[in-house]
Amino acid sequence: MTDPTTSASRPAALRVLVYSDDADTREQVIRALGRRPDPELPELDFVEVATAPMVIRHMDAGGIDLAILDGEATPAGGMGIAKQLKDELEQCPPVVVLTGRADDAWLADWSRAEAAVPRPLDPFRLAETVVALLRGRSIT
């Protein structure tokens, strides 16, 4: 029998949207983060998206706690989508942009993303960035 007080006090999963036209990139991000990148945060529930229209649809619907957007995706790159989301959504969740290289961080700044993580993906850096944003801390 389930104890209702335990399940009621358990926080809901955090929903993380992962956008890339490349299934391998989405898998790499999800594998790098795992379901529980930090013991003090709820589990992560991933929403995988392969097209820009689906990103917009999910973000418009709400319920996304953080978005990770592939800046190298085609035909719509994650930086352009991030800029659109920040311009159009009144309550836009934090956005992490995956850049092609560290020198592309200025483009992520233009997109108004809260953070950029360069490729090749470092699982520790990605997890640290995502955990900090989900906890509401700023990234330096």
UniProtKB/TrEMBL annotation:
What Gene3D superfamilies is this protein classified in?
3.40.50.2300
Which BP terms from GO are recorded? Answer: phosphorelay signal transduction system
Q: Which InterPro entries match?
A: CheY-like_superfamily, Sig_transdc_resp-reg_receiver
Keywords (A to Z) from UniProt:
Phosphoprotein
PTM sites of type 4-aspartylphosphate: D70
Q: Per the database record, which ranges form the Response regulatory domain?
A: 15-134
Name by which UniProt lists this protein:
Chemotaxis protein CheY
Ranked from the top, the taxonomy reads: Bacteria, Bacillati, Actinomycetota, Actinomycetes, Mycobacteriales
